[in-house]
Amino acid sequence: MSGRTKFIWKQRLEAVEMCLSGDYSYITVAKKFNTRDSTLRNWISSYKNNGVDGLQESHTWIPPRA
Fold it and tell me: What is the C-alpha radius of gyration for the chain, rounded to an integer number of angstroms?
């Protein structure tokens, strides 16, 4: 098991919008979504660069072999 949590793009968008609203801190939102604030910052960066398409499922990660 990789330990990675899968988020659908709608969850990522909700988290990004919460942060960008200015009403919530990165830490607060990261805790709510049970992820790291660095992951949240990556989502925000991707959203700013590519819009909603930046939050779509990435297929570049390949799990390690057992």
Answer: 12
Q: Is the dihedral of CA 26, 43, 6, 8 positive or negative?
A: positive
Nearest 5°: the CA angle 19, 12, 65 is 130
Where on the phi/psi map is residue 45: left (φ > 0), alpha (ψ -120 to 50), or beta?
alpha
Amino acid at the residue 48: K
**Cβ atoms < 10 Å from Cβ of 44:** 20
Neighbours of 12 (CB within 10 A): 24
Using an 8 Å Cβ cutoff, are 58 and 47 in contact? no
pLDDT in tens, 26-53: 999 999 999 999 999 999 999 999 999 8
Query: pTM value?
Result: 0.75
